[in-house]
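Lab meeting, action items carried over

1. Structure of the two-component assembly. Owner: GW. Status: complete.
Input record:
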Amino acid sequence: TQLLEQSPQFLSIQEGENLTVYCNSSSVFSSLQWYRQEPGEGPVLLVTVVTGGEVKKLKRLTFQFGDARKDSSLHITAAQPGDTGLYLCAGEKYGGSQGNLIFGKGTKLSVKP
Amino acid sequence: NAGVMQNPRHLVRRRGQEARLRCSPMKGHSHVYWYRQLPEEGLKFMVYLQKENIIDESGMPKERFSAEFPKEGPSILRIQQVVRGDSAAYFCASSLTTSGNNEQFFGPGTRLTVL
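Predicted assembly:
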């Protein structure tokens, strides 16, 4: 059973389009992080959200943490080919082992010029 | 300001050999984590260490796998008598603290191939 479900699994869009990827769970998380991973490399941290309802913006990327801290979304405005990659959400389960990040399987995004 | 460093980046071993994976955390970070990523799978937590201590090894197989983070030098993940199923990408991450938001920063990974 996957504790963090990401959707969609794959997404292929044209440059300039907007998109949203989702990260859902039935469990509460103390914090949730979004990473981007390129082939052959390690995940690169994009953002951390810790407060229910929190919204963070990073240029064209908008991250939201659900009010109940069970879900999160990543919205990209006017996607560019450089946004192509694997987007991973990861969280520390509330009441779980400290340091043990639980990862979703990721959303593989392809942005075509 | 160097990030998390891992070596080697690629490692090929024959079944039955030992694999040693090294990780140097970011400067000032004393918390190290190891994760394994299988093809088409998400990253799975293996072990969490602080200097000279294993804090949580709940994700690490009980046999053949061990990890250490000595007072001096890098953290080592050791896999003895490797089998084909050990082929995966192994990532190390480090953090400054586990309190608060526990931001973990990842290295580039070691890709282990067992022939």
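2. GW to write a short summary for the group page. Key points so far: DSSP finds no helices and eleven strands in chain B. Chain B has a mean pLDDT of 92.
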